[in-house]
Amino acid sequence: MIGYMKARLYSNQKIRLPDGSIISIVIWIAESSEERPHGFKYRLNFSSSDGETLVRYDNERGKGDHKHIGEKQTKYKFKDVDKLLEDFWHDVDNILEQTEND
Question: How large is the average pLDDT for residues 17-35?
Fold first, then answer.
């Protein structure tokens, strides 16, 4: 099939928090490409209990590495998987802290 790459699952986690919000982390090791020179395909998502995206990091085809905080989308500079996870959890913690303080 043209356009599809062989990939190996690196991480697939889903966490449901007590308030019903969901954290999903899916990372694939794939072949390096011009669009993904680091060789990872990923989607890290934190959504509210009603499905609203609060934080999402992904690198869907055609958009490259980027992140969403609410409805705001910005480019993301991918360094490595450890940094990706650290940055994602940092943003999740910030959202959770804001929620606690509201």
Answer: 93
